[in-house]
Design a protein that fits this description.
The chain is of the alpha/beta class. The chain is built from 10 helices and 12 strands. Strands 7-8-9-6-5-4-3-2-1-10-11-12 form a 12-stranded mixed β-sheet. Helix 2 links the parallel strand 2 and strand 3. The structure holds S-adenosylmethionine (SAM). The site of S-adenosylmethionine has 20 residues, from strand 3, strand 5 and helix 10.
Length: 339
């Protein structure tokens, strides 16, 4: 058990034996978009007060401790991470931490055209851009921002400056964009970039989620394989996506299926929220407040102890919550967790 391991052997193991190697760091809960499946209504949003948001120094300190406990890959997210001023400075700091192999980012793409080069120079490896529609009117309706051309320019810029991989994330929602699946795939194929469809999870702020609105991954693969010759690559250990390669070499298609085919048994991800809480599972209701320790003179050792204990209690995951198909009274929506 973790308490008896020698210091140099410590890893972030939970009671099911899963070991965390990947970290998502949310740098803000704020977003300039208001995606239907993520944010609450404008007048119901209460942003985390600025003074509660971790500074770059504080994030760096927590990531250093996590790296010493086996975290190797970091993804920066939010909210919208590029709303955080000078984000490239944080990228530079995290890429410099010993044992961190890669730093990637998930973004809505709004600031990407302007920021891509600086991010690349700071050491960012790749970027995943959320793109749920290729029709301007619909893009605006789903994301709350009339921004399609700008986001597409951001994707092109990311490719130009050599961020690698550049990927697309699409959340398919029944009745909203499920008729665009093939168009989105074709857009990605033309650029030879990977596209991932994520099943709609009950982590939305509007309370619009219900299981009928989830487009199961199988439906997407059935539609795609009627048009494109595909080769199944499976889901690698600890990966979220099951991958299908286009046989003509034009990139690949991934399905992230937390609702229809959960993949909790080898989950190796944990999250740090913008206000410094450690979350060991998207569907956890237990937040472990690291900020308190960071700001009140807690030693690296005390932080490590708290993190080890928190990860040990990681829940089994959404795959063990079959009742969730009937809905979930969740404590936080995606923008506040850090997707
Ligand atoms: N603002 C950035 C963006 O738009 O990509 C990063 C944060 S966003 C919360 C991260 C990812 O979570 C996005 O790809 C988004 O589409 C996805 N997401 C948000 N709410 C979701 C939900 N309820 N179900 C599934 N995916 C969701």
């Amino acid at each position: 058990m973790q308490g008896t391991e020698k210091r140099e052997e410590r890893v972030l193991r939970d009671r099911k034996g899963r070991i965390a190697r990947k970290l998502r760091v949310s740098v803000t809960d704020r977003c300039n978009f208001a995606c239907l499946f993520c944010m609450p209504e404008k007048d119901k949003i209460s942003w985390i007060p600025n003074e509660q948001i971790l500074s770059f120094d504080e994030i760096e300190r927590v990531v250093e401790v996590l790296a010493s406990l086996g975290i190797e890959k970091v993804r920066i997210t939010g909210g919208e991470p590029l709303l955080r001023r000078d984000l490239e400075e944080l990228v530079d700091r995290i890429t410099s931490i010993k044992k961190i192999h890669s730093v990637d980012m998930t973004t809505n793409g709004w600031h990407l055209e302007r920021k891509a080069e600086a991010l690349r120079r700071a050491g960012l490896r790749g970027v995943t851009v959320s793109l749920h529609s290729l029709r301007s009117d619909r893009f605006a309706k789903i994301s709350g921002m009339d921004a399609l051309p700008r986001v597409l320019r951001g994707i092109d810029r990311a490719l130009d400056v050599g961020l690698n991989p550049v990927k697309i994330n699409s959340v398919a929602i029944r009745g909203y964009n499920d008729d665009e699946i093939l168009n989105l795939i074709e857009y990605a194929r033309e650029r030879r970039i990977s596209i991932r469809f994520i099943e709609f999870m009950p982590l939305d702020g509007l309370g619009m989620w219900n299981y009928e609105r989830v487009v199961p991954g199988k439906e997407i693969i059935d539609a795609a394989s009627r048009v494109y010759p595909l080769e199944a690559q499976g889901r690698g250990n600890n990966e979220t996506s099951s991958i299908w390669r286009f046989k003509d070499g034009r990139g690949d298609l991934g399905l992230i299926t937390p609702m229809s085919e959960p993949f909790c048994d080898d989950c190796d991800r944990i999250r740090l929220t913008a206000d410094g809480k450690l979350l060991s599972c998207l569907f956890d209701t237990d937040y472990h407040d690291l900020r308190h320790l960071v700001r009140n003179g807690g030693s690296q050792e005390a932080l490590a102890d708290m993190i080890l204990k928190a990860v040990w209690k990681k829940p089994d995951g959404v795959g063990y919550m079959p009742w969730i198909k009937d809905g979930w009274a969740k404590p936080r929506n995606m923008n506040a967790i850090g997707g």
